[in-house]
Structures are given as structure tokens and as C-alpha cells.
Amino acid sequence: MQHCENYDKPVQFFYNYSGKYITDDWSTRDYVVLGVGLTVCVIVILSNILVITAIIINRNFHFPIYYLLGNMAAADLFAGVSYVNLLFHTGPYTIGLSKHQWFVRGALVDMSLMASVANLLAVAVERHQTIFTMQLHSNMSNRRVGLLILGIWAVAVFMGLVPFMGWDCICDLDACSITAPLYKRSFLAFWAMLNLIMFSIMVAMYARIFVYVHRRCRSRPALDVDQLNYETVVNLMKTVAIVLGAFVICWTPGLVILLLDGLNCKVCQVLKYEKYCLALAECNSLVNPIIYSYRDEDMRKTFKQILCFLCRTEGDQQGELSPVEFKKKDGSKRSSLRLPLFSASSTG
Q1: What is the CATH number of the domain that holds 268?
Q2: Span 87-141, pLDDT tens digits
Q3: Which residues pair with 335 in a beta bridge?
Q4: Do 339 and 56 meet the contact criterion of CB atoms below 8 Å apart?
Q5: How confident is the model at residue 314 (pLDDT cuts 50, 70, 90)?
Q6: I need a labelling partner for 238 at 20 to 30 A (CA). Which of 61, 101, 228, 255 fits?
Q7: In whole angstroms, what is the distance from residue 301 CA to residue 305 CA?
Q8: At what angle do helices 28-57 and 297-316 cross, to 10 degrees?
Q9: Which of 313 and 252 is assigned the larger pLDDT?
Q10: Which InterPro entries match (predicted)?
């Protein structure tokens, strides 16, 4: 960060200067926001751990598209953790933050958004490739998928740290934004436009895919030996499209607010809608596991098996022998029982 006469000023100074006033008094509204927010974050974290676990243990999901969806769940999990951090460093808590802590707080949220957007773009490209060749899964190797996922997180970390590396308004108070008083308005405008453009690209790609699928459905014969595989490809594509749609719906209002703030709109009352938009964005990390459960029978069955296994394990710890592993009565070598491999019907 730059050094200037404002460098040693506390975070509250920048909030007061921009007009986003904070106090050290806790209101009933603050307690409600904290309580509801923490509850949602806990559900987000647990549900996305469930998705990641299902993808790891079910061999039906060991394909590039599911690895990317698993990485999407990891981004949602990271979002849940970043929102927990935000809740404990917002409102009256903000007064006690150092500038470094404030930038870390913002960077975590920015990283989770960037990871999700970049991951959705990778999924869109993967689906575009497979649909037009009518393949169920991409031919990418596990190594290439792993490198792609590492690249997604590298981009997310870099973009999250950009304000910390100098794109701030500490030495240029007149350029400070209102919603994020230590960020320059130009950064908010850039950030919002970048994400909105990526949204538009992904929506255009899926629109092209749907047009292609619609034309193919009209031209293909009524009976086809590959009918089941074709329907599976289309259903998986629809599931991914719903995930993208939910993401766009949840994040677009917040990005529009940031864009209006970045463009220095004086009559837009961005602070009035800021918290509602942030709450809507947080809900996006919660809806993806619901979408997977509703759209994918294989995923739903795997969820049930994981939860049933956890319930049985809890019962074993209360005095019953574990069905997974036990010792022989004579105390000799331990024997073990393998859990059945998770398997279910094709993706629906």
C-alpha cells in the first residue's frame, strides 16, 4: 500500500469521509443480521462439504465436469468461510479493524466470487465442447483438470489482492467509493464490469448450446440407440445451466450496485440496497447443493448414503460395534469390512 499523510488514519476515518458512518453501538438489527448470517454460513459450509465428499467417494463422478462442480462447491465453501469472517468484522466491529485486516476481509470475499466466476466459465467451455460433439464427458486428463483448477484459484487470489497491492484510495480521498470506503471507485467499476462481461459471455454460450440442442432434437429420429446417452448429456447440461442462472440472479444486483458506486452515481442510494444484495449473493452458495440434489438422482442417493453412514457411525460410538472395522474375539489380527462402492443410476 502507498504511504502518504492518510496512511496512519484509522479505518473509521475513511468511512466517515465517504459518508458510510459506523458506530460502536449494537442495534437489534445488527444482532439479527449476525445470527441469521451465521446460521446460513454454517449450512453453506456443511452442505458444500457434503457435495465435495459425494464427488470424492462416488466413482460415477470421477470425470472433468464433476471435478469442476466439486471445485465450484469448494469456492462456495470458501465463500461461507469468508462470510463468517465478514460477519465478525463488520458493523461496530469495523471500528477496531486495522487497514490490513480490512483489506484481508474484502480480499476473501473477492476471491470467492472470482473463483466461482472463473470456475463457471471453465464449466461453460467444457460443456460447449462436449455438447457439440455429443459426448457425456470431456476428454481432458485428470492432470489437465488439476492444472485448470489451480489456475482458477491463482487468478482468484491475484484478483483478490489487487486492491491491497495499490488500487486503493488511501492517498486519494476524493476517489474513495461509498460501499467499500478504502477502494477506489475505478476499481469497483472495473471489478463489476469484468464480472458482468463474464456473465454475458457464459449466458451467450449456453444460449448457443440450447439452440443447437433444440435443433438437434427436432432433426433426430424418434428411436435412437444412443437416446439414453443423449438425454443424459442434455440433463447434465441443463443442471449446469441452472447453476449458472442461479449465480447470475444472485450476484447481478450486487455487481450493479458496485458499478453504480464506481460510476459515482449520486442519486442511486447504493447504501440503501447494499446489505440486501450482499445477503442475496450469500444465498447463492446455499442453493447449489439444493440444485444438485433436485436435478441429479445419483448425487441425491450419494447424499443419503453419506448421511445414513454418519448416523450409523454416531450410533456405534454410543456402545455398538462398528460395522466397518472390529477385532476378533480372541484379540488376534483386526478384520475389516469394506463399505459398498457408491453406485446409482446414470445422471438425470
Answers
A1: 1.20.1070.10
A2: 888 877 888 888 899 999 999 999 998 999 999 888 888 888 877 776 666 777 8
A3: 326
A4: no
A5: low
A6: 255
A7: 6
A8: 100
A9: 252
A10: GPCR_Rhodpsn, GPCR_Rhodpsn_7TM, LPA_rcpt, LPA_rcpt_EDG2
CA distances from 111 to 79, 122, 162 (A): 8, 16, 10
- Give CA–CA dist 306/201, Å, rounded: 37
* 69 in a structural domain: yes
CB burial string 122-145: b at 16+ within 10 A, e below = bbbbbbbebbeeeeeebebeeeeb
Is residue 240 within 8 Å of residue 64, measured between CB atoms?
no
Element (H, E) at 302: helix 297-316
Mapped onto helix, strand or coil, the DSSP state of residue 140 is coil
**Would you say residue 293 lies in a domain?**
yes
How far apart CA 226 and CA 228 sit, in angstroms, is 6
pLDDT tens column, 166-201: 888 888 888 999 999 999 999 999 999 999 999 999
> How many distinct structural domains can be found in the chain?
1
pLDDT tens per residue across span 22-41: 877 777 777 887 888 899 89
Query: What is the extent of the structural domain holding 299?
Result: 11-312
Is 318 among the domain residues? Answer: no
β-strand pairing of 335-336 with 325-326: antiparallel
